[in-house]
Design a protein that fits this description.
By secondary structure, this protein is mainly α. It is built from four helices and no strands. Helix 1 crosses helix 2. The radius of gyration is 21 Å and the shape is elongated.
């Protein structure tokens, strides 16, 4: 097992980490280990999208499109 020291951790991050640990009944170190492991080992497709990616979803299309045509193309391609 390796050791990792984290310096200059903002106080609000430490507070939140401590709260999460208390809610789960584990130490703050264990909560940090679990959080890092979930973040690093999560499959790429299952990671939470960034705020930038989420913002793009709500944007109006640049030009009109035929939803039926898109749906038919997806159906034909087997992407139901």
């Amino acid at each position: 097992m390796a050791t990792l020291m984290i310096r200059n951790l903002p106080d609000d991050i430490k507070r939140e980490l401590r709260k999460r640990a208390a809610n789960r009944g584990v130490s703050m170190e264990q909560e940090a280990r679990d959080t890092l492991a979930r973040s690093v080992l999560a499959p790429a497709g299952r990671r939470k999208p960034s705020i930038e990616a989420m913002s793009k979803l709500g944007k109006k299309p640049e030009r009109p499109f035929d939803l039926k045509k898109v749906s038919d193309e997806m159906w034909d391609a087997g992407l139901q």
